[in-house]
Write a structure and sequence with these properties.
By secondary structure, this protein is mostly beta strands. It has one domain: Lipoprotein localisation LolA/LolB/LppX (outer membrane lipoprotein receptor (LolB), chain A, Clam). 13% of the residues lie in helices and 47% in strands. The chain contains five helices and twelve strands. The protein has a twelve-stranded mixed sheet. Strand 4 and strand 5 form a beta hairpin. The termini are close together. Pfam families: LolA (PF03548). Monomer. Keywords: Chaperone, Periplasm, Protein transport, Signal, Transport.
Length: 209
C-alpha cells in the first residue's frame, strides 16, 4: 500500500541547479499562468524518495502524460517497468515483475494531492492554503498546505521557471519526501485517448483497494 501511494505522488525537484534568473513575475502568477489554458501535458521525469532521515531510499525515471479532465499516466522505465493509469474513475497500477494489477478509486487516491487541481481544474485554493515563498536557486516557489486533515501529505512545494512547473517536493505524514524533476516538457500536446485506457493482462492477479 505504501509503495502504491508513493508511486502516485506528484511531481519534482531538480537534481542539478539552474543558474538563470527567475522571471520577474511572482511565484503565484507563474503558477496561474501554468494552469490557465492547460489541457494536456507530457514530460520526462526523475523521481527520488527520501526517508524521514533524509537518506535516499529510491530513485526512478520515466515519462508522464496528463489530459484534462481527470486523466494521467506514469510510465516508469527504470529501475523497473511499471505503469500507473488514471482513467477518470480509477487508478490502475501495473507491475510486470510481479504480474499483478492494483486498482483504487481515483477520488480517494488523489485526496489532498496536487493532482486534484492539475487534472481537475479546480481552483488551487479550494484544496490548499497557498503561500508564495519567493525566489530561490533560479526558481519561483509556491508552498501548498492541504486543507483536508485526512491528506497523506503535510506540504507540497512547487518550483516554476518561465511559467512551467519544473520541480515538485511532497512531504507525507511519516516525514518521507518525494521529489520530482521534469524535463522535455510539452504543454498542450495532442495525446492519444488510448494512453488513458487500461487493459489488464488476463493472467495478472488483480487487487482492489
Amino acid at each position: 500500500m505504501i509503495d502504491y501511494l508513493n508511486r502516485c505522488k506528484w511531481l519534482l525537484v531538480l537534481l542539478c541547479w539552474v543558474s538563470t534568473p527567475v522571471s520577474a513575475s511572482s511565484s503565484l502568477a507563474q503558477m496561474e499562468q501554468f494552469l490557465t489554458g492547460m489541457q494536456s501535458l507530457q514530460a520526462s521525469f526523475e523521481q527520488s524518495v527520501l526517508d524521514p532521515q533524509q537518506q535516499l531510499a529510491a530513485r526512478s525515471q520515466g515519462v508522464f502524460y496528463m489530459q484534462r479532465p481527470g486523466r494521467f499516466r506514469w510510465d516508469y522505465s527504470e529501475p523497473d517497468e511499471q505503469q500507473i493509469i488514471a482513467d477518470g474513475r480509477q487508478i490502475w497500477l501495473l507491475d510486470p515483475e510481479l504480474e499483478q494489477v492494483s486498482v483504487q478509486s481515483q477520488s480517494s487516491a488523489l485526496q489532498g494531492t496536487p493532482a486534484m487541481f492539475l487534472i481537475g481544474g479546480d481552483p488551487v485554493e479550494k484544496h490548499f492554503e497557498v503561500v508564495d515563498i519567493g525566489d530561490s536557486q533560479g526558481f519561483a516557489w509556491v508552498e501548498l498546505i492541504p486543507r483536508d486533515k485526512e491528506s497523506q501529505f503535510i506540504r507540497v512545494l512547487l518550483a516554476f521557471h518561465d511559467n512551467l512547473l519544473q520541480r515538485m517536493e511532497m512531504t507525507d505524514t511519516f516525514g518521507q519526501v518525494t521529489r520530482f524533476q521534469f524535463y522535455d516538457i510539452q504543454q498542450n500536446p495532442t495525446l492519444k485517448p488510448s494512453l488513458f485506457v487500461f487493459e489488464r493482462p488476463a493472467y495478472y492477479d488483480l487487487y482492489e483497494r
